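Dear colleague,

Following up on Tuesday's group meeting, I ran the structure prediction for the two-component complex that the binding team flagged. I've pasted the input sequences exactly as they went in, so you can double-check that nothing got truncated or mislabelled along the way. The structure tokens for the whole assembly follow below. Feel free to forward this to whoever is handling the docking comparison.

Inputs:
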Amino acid sequence: MDSFARLLHLSPPLAWMALKLLIVIGGVMGIAAVLTWVERRGAAMMQDRIGPNRAGVKGITLLGLVQLAADGIKFFLKEDVVPPHGNRLLFTLAPALAFVPAMLGFAVIPFGQSFSSGGQAYHLSLLDPGNGMGMLYPLAIGSMAVYGILVASWSSNNKWAILGGMRSGANMVSYELGMSLAVISIFMAAGNSPVGSPVTLEAYDPHRIVEAQEGLWFAVRQPLGFLVFFTCMFAETNRLPFDFAEGESEIVAGFHTEYSSMKFALLQLSEYIHIVTASALLVTLYLGGWRIPFVPNPGVLLSVAAFLAKLLFLCWVFVWVRWTIPRFRYDQLMFLGWKVMLPLSMANLLLQAWLMHGRGIA
Amino acid sequence: MFLVFALITLLGALAMFRQRNVVVAGLCMVLTFFGVAGLFVLLANPVAAALQIIVYSGAIMVLVLFVIMLLNSHEEEPAQSGRLVQAWGGALLAAVLGVGAVKLVLQSRTLHELGASPVPAPITLNKLGVQIFSEHLVAFEVVGLLLLAAMIAAVSIAKRKL
């Protein structure tokens, strides 16, 4: 690490920060871009079609991957239409409002085992452990994601857009409650670092949560919480079966009916980035983060590979579910959110508290 | 850093006042909340900052904007006649209140002790929980009861036939 920093004429922490930024932003954007391809090929596979396979450079199609480049070029060349009676400023701002929270949520996720070099510890997460925000940060940022959709839908001045925005706004706010309660029981189970460990981390620090999953993953210890959080993640990312921002059969394309060109591309990309961030949260909270079962110290490369494997699998699950389960009706969505998910989440919290009390922890 | 967040807060608030469009004004208020959250972080209280964003910007403002968007008119109408007395009276009152608040803060004893005492450790979720459930238990329960009452009232207003 030191020699690498000297090569760039930077101090080691600064060089490491820059490197991490490159890895995270590049990695998340890359996965999100490929996900658009996975989604179309996956959809085709499940519906017994072929999917995109024609675009290619001199006959090289790479299983349709070249389609991504073709889409990108097309988006750049398309006319950028702004609806005349909408709010121009907010219409332009909305894609950024959708994109930034989706991207920021990843900042606290530890995507590999920490290592030390030259007497200094390096952590594989953008924000170092012990920053005081911990897991509250992705929750806070995640609650901002609703603004992108609300603002996009309102500023379009379009009936379908506003209907989509309203529905998904209500959806996201409703499921946030169950999700937060599930996360709180994770904090309880993780607990602060035991007395005498080299660094004392708070219970809600993601590094501590990964540390606490050394034996059993939280998905095994709290199956109910996992189920609730998993479902709420689908609602928060506005994916089917909670796809209420769009709903082609009812409200055209929903909140992005009026969007075209690169603004549309940005909205679409932020949905996929959201999937990546949601998967990362699930991996960190419930699937042991970068841990590999029965391997106490996997090392940097192996741990990153394990994290990536879990992340990609969950991303695939998001695609898988989309083409398997049909969309809910709006009242079914509200019923599920308030009368099933929230009580289940509360029951999980009480159960975990009772179990901890029984073991004499608190 | 303090100046940056203070400016975000103040400019957001100012923009909210000057904005005629109610939805844009609401979004300016969200910006102000972010500025306040930044100030909380500077005051070594990241938990309050996170809660500020989750509760105020993430839930309350969303619901307020929701209601505004469902209404038909989003533009404030300009006043039919300028009301000079009210305008100047309001400005004067605000100035007096501001001066009074600053004076009170400057006179308070804790402010003078602040320089002498060591820098406090950042507030964590754990500390906050212990504080709430030991020192402020009664207040916490009262707030819970108040929220329950408000909830029951809202349901009884919304649902004519229970």
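The domain at 1-74 of chain B is CATH 1.20.120.1200 (Four Helix Bundle (Hemerythrin (Met), subunit A)).

Cheers,
M.
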